[in-house]
Amino acid sequence: MASAAYSTAPAAAPAVAPVGAEAMTALEKQALVHVNALRTAHGCAALVIDRGLEKAAHGYAAEMVRTHNFSHTSASGKSPGDRARDAGYTRGGVGENIAMGFRGDPDGVVNDADYGWMSSSGHRENILDCDYTRTGMGYAAGNIDPHYADGSWVQVFG
Known about the structure:
Structural class: alpha+beta
Distance between the termini: 25 Å
CATH architecture: 3-Layer(aba) Sandwich
Radius of gyration: 14 Å
Shape: globular
Number of domains: 1
Strand content: 15-25%
Order of helices and strands: EHEHHEHHEE
Strand order of the largest sheet: 1-3-5-4-2
């Protein structure tokens, strides 16, 4: 498993109704439940899904598999903030956690990703940053690097 974290300053939470998680896969929903359990256990509010952040996360998870580029900077030079804006997110700064190399049953995949992210200070800071109120989760099957198992995770925070 490999993972990386990125963050810019989040903006104040807007007075906008949260968007539902209709487009999320069962695996992504399960990951969000785990992340929200970690957040609430540490005194932060649960994250709600934002369609722009979700679109950015899905798109970048697939792009990392397609381009074999495991980085917060895309093969075309775009940052997490660039991708979030391109996907329609306009509320301010973003954080991004990425990971690759998970396989197996859904519980194992989600637990491994959560454990990896919480064991890394940058990822942990993104997950437990109470200023973030919105998120998008993306998972794509496929091999980014032959030294790791299949699977690409992206979580974008806003």
